[in-house]
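just leaving the lab so this will be short. what follows is a protein written twice so to speak, once as letters and once as structure tokens for the fold. can you read through it and tell me how you think this chain folds. anything you notice is useful, everything is just below:
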Amino acid sequence: MAEAGAVELVPASTLSTSTVAVGDWVEARGRVALRVLERTSLVSRKAAGSSVARQVIAANLDALFIVSSCNADFNAGRMERFLVLAASAGVEPVVVLTKADTAADPQAFVRQAQVLKKGLPVVLMDAKRDDVRMALGPWIGPGQTVALLGSSGVGKTTIANALTGGAAAVQDIRDDDAKGRHTTTGRYLVAMSGGGWLIDTPGMREVQLTDAYDGIGLFFDDLTQLSLTCKFRNCRHDGEPGCAIQAAIASGDLDRARLVRWQKLLSEDDTNTATMETSAARAAGRRGFPKKKK
């Protein structure tokens, strides 16, 4: 996108397309993209499946709309992972709960989302009927770039249509398991009607973390700070004397499940990050190894 509208660019020979993400700004001469400008944020995860690779989701976001519907799709653990991605990138997260009209008690879903993080913005809506632009107004002003993230069938495309004036087809969720069908199959940057930019993404149910240590620390800042007051610096919070976290659990100030989730995400991130670093080192070694003569 340029000031005059959409422009198709050709990468220069020195610019690898694998280094460009949706949301990137590039320096161009004519229709040739020369280089990627410095990013303000980058949201990424470990690629789905067994692949040992990092998948970039979007760049230069100001806010990340984490979309879930008020039904069986709502998964606090997966939502927590999306929130860690936002924290890692330094992007403001906003939980958007859709299909409010289908739930007997939609406020129950709001409460479940709010307890994940103090002060977390949570917006409840029926995207087919409510004024989506008004509901999301604080985050979609001119110059703002936002992305929609969530499972298939939760209403991301309906929200995108409302914000951009588009008319992309939508798919309803299946009644038996609340899972949706993919409507968006790629990542797209689209101008919003009132200014700003929207990145729509395909449905995402698996969220594996990598290089997210800082984001985990920010999201679980209560546990991070509490752990600094443990008697031993290498406390594992599993029965050691003088453990401040176990004391908080015993007093009822901390939910044990939050500790378990924190430790699980730290372990997962450590494993995935180490695996990718090892894979990258091996690949670099193969590139630098002289080829055998035939």
Observations:
- The helical segments are 76-89, 106-114, 132-135, 156-164, 213-219, 221-227, 244-250, 256-288.
- The longest strand covers residues 63-69.
- The longest helix spans residues 256-288.
